[in-house]
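tool_call: predict_structure(chain=1)
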Amino acid sequence: MLELLYPRKCCVCSDVLERDQEHICSACMEDFPYTYFWNWRDHPWEKALWGRCNFRFVCSLFYYSRDNDYSRLDKRIKYAGDLSLGRWLGVMLGEKMKILCEDVDYIVPVPVHPLRRWKRGYNQAEVIAKGIEKGVGRSSMLYNALYRRKNSVSQTLLDVNEKWNNVKGVFGLKRGAQEMLAGKHVLIVDDLLTTGATAQACFETLVQIPGITISFASLAAVRH
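tool_result:
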């Protein structure tokens, strides 16, 4: 009865979903812009970050473009509070990354400033990371590793240089993180990979830990 009054709609094309469909209709799933990074080593994004970040691997679920309807997925999670969509896509990514994540010890979501978290009510990177954790099939979430030193402006409308300056030195290690993560493989998780600025800022904060191995995953990535 509830679906008759408020029919569930595809998050991409807004068509009414069938009973067995979840979040995205079959037609949009057929055209889903997968990156296939989980089966593609030395892909363009890994090469782009060489020399700046010695990541073990970089993986994203789908390609993001502002001119593409699939960009609505990230926006729904980040700005419309569609947390179930974030978890669902995170699970999908985690299932595809299972082999890559065999030796990952901890999953660390990119933190938001406490003020922004209070205003929004959640951290979208944590939502996605919880889905990845479920998809990988291992309980390894670690919230108390990184913190954000300042409430920097949103990266969304900044140009490339502004994005780099906006996150430079913005992250710090929480007390006890160095001892906990020494010699461990850590997977950093964010919602979107656009310039690599946030990924590098997190890497530069964590790489000071002795013996650490770092990888990066995002729900979406722009084509590089």
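agent: The chain has a mean pLDDT of 90. Proceeding to next step.
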